[in-house]
Design brief:
The chain has 353 residues and is of the alpha+beta class. The chain is built from nine helices and eleven strands. The chain has two domains: 121 residues, Phosphorylase Kinase, domain 1 (2-Layer Sandwich), CATH 3.30.200; 226 residues, Transferase(Phosphotransferase) domain 1 (Transferase(Phosphotransferase), domain 1), CATH 1.10.510.10. A six-stranded antiparallel sheet has the order 1-2-3-4-6-5, with helices on one face. Helix 3 runs antiparallel to helix 5, helix 3 packs antiparallel against helix 9 and helix 7 packs antiparallel against helix 8. The radius of gyration is 21 Å and the shape is globular.
């Protein structure tokens, strides 16, 4: 079989999809980006309306090399259907900080091939935040705070509708023209009312961004402390990344002794927690050293302590934590980042005059 027959999702350029969509050039992933191992991205143009959009084409070809190809194809189909359901929910609820679904469908197997290509057509982004961040220059506090405000709002919108994102990382924070940043890629999200195909996993997202409890295989039975707490940790981790180029998991690992590292620890999570709190303290000190605005460094450090607490039941703003009701809310952080953003604009304006 030809390469196009074996991996049709990789060869969609120039193809015509239903509803007048023509597939244009593929989108090249940023060198520092992550994800996308089982999908291909393209620009698409609607010939009828002239609308430009983004195409995510799912690659089912890997099912052919599985021990049980039919079972593997069924699993992939379930994953696609689940993601589409999440996207439809976000569209119907008008979640303004989540990248919008425009269309979806299947490009049928053709030219003698046997592999169909499910696809999602989404609103077009000009890239992810890797395209904006330049760590070789002076820290852009204004941009960082804008990003943090946007993703706090995005996570809150998802959580309010019973969805945990589970894969918050730079490559999933997208730049939308004339709009705040939006959160994309719900391929690993978890809908509380409908367990996903990977529900048994300790953590469904990129493991390099996983919270410590998942790495130590100590996952809480309560959905809030298992899934929403993971998103809270990843929000705190994103603060660290924006100022250090490292996520919180990587920074903490540098401050955990080999004996207490998750790859070596054989005792309970409760017993390792004191060492993780020490690692958290050292990690936040490292973060503060990278921030040239000491007042802002203090404010952001307080937030990191709250969001990256090694105990998932203690994560979040102190005034929002309610163990009795099993609640973690990120709503206060929308207001906090908005306040920090406004304060920094005022301070920056005064410095210039």
């Amino acid at each position: 079989m030809t390469p196009e027959q074996l991996t049709p999702a990789k060869y969609l350029e120039g193809k015509i999809l239903p509803n007048y969509w023509i597939v244009q050039e593929p989108i090249t992933k940023h060198p520092n980006g992550s994800g996308g191992n089982f999908s291909y991205s393209y620009n698409v143009l609607n010939q009828n309306t002239g609308q430009q959009a983004f195409l995510k084409a799912l690659d089912f070809s890997r099912a052919l090399s599985a021990a049980d190809p039919l079972k593997a194809m069924s699993i992939l189909t379930n994953l696609v259907n689940y993601e589409q359901n999440l996207l439809e929910i976000c569209r119907s609820k008008r979640l303004s900080r989540i990248v919008s679904l425009i269309d979806s469908g299947n490009y049928p197997a053709s030219n003698g091939g046997i592999i169909p290509v499910p696809y999602f057509i989404m609103e077009l982004a000009s890239g992810d935040i890797y395209n904006q961040l330049d760590f070789s220059q002076k820290i852009d506090h204004l941009l960082n705070l804008q990003i943090l405000h946007s993703i706090s709002a995005a996570l809150f919108q998802l959580h309010y509708n019973g969805i945990a994102h589970q894969d918050l990382k730079p490559s999933n924070i997208l730049i939308i023209e004339k709009s705040p940043h939006k959160l994309g890629d719900l391929g690993r999200a978890d809908l509380r009312s409908q367990p996903p195909p990977y529900a048994i996993m300790d953590f469904a997202g990129d493991p390099s961004y996983a919270p410590p409890e998942a790495l130590y295989k100590s996952v809480h039975q309560d959905w809030i402390f298992r899934r929403i707490a993971s998103d809270a940790y990843q929000l705190g981790s994103m603060i660290v990344f924006l100022y250090t180029q490292l996520n919180m998991t990587a920074v903490m690992k540098n401050h955990i002794s080999p004996k207490h590292d998750w790859n070596n620890w054989t005792q309970t999570y409760r017993e390792v927690l004191p060492y993780l709190y020490v690692a958290l303290e050292k990690s936040v000190d490292f973060f503060k050293d990278q921030v040239d605005d000491k007042e802002l460094a203090k404010d952001l450090s307080d937030i990191i302590f709250q969001l990256c607490d090694p105990d998932p039941t203690k994560r979040g703003h102190p005034k929002s934590i309610n163990k009795r009701l099993s609640t973690i809310s990120l709503e206060r952080y929308i207001t906090i980042f908005d306040r920090l953003l406004k304060n920094y604009r005022v301070k920056n304006f005064r410095t210039k005059i």
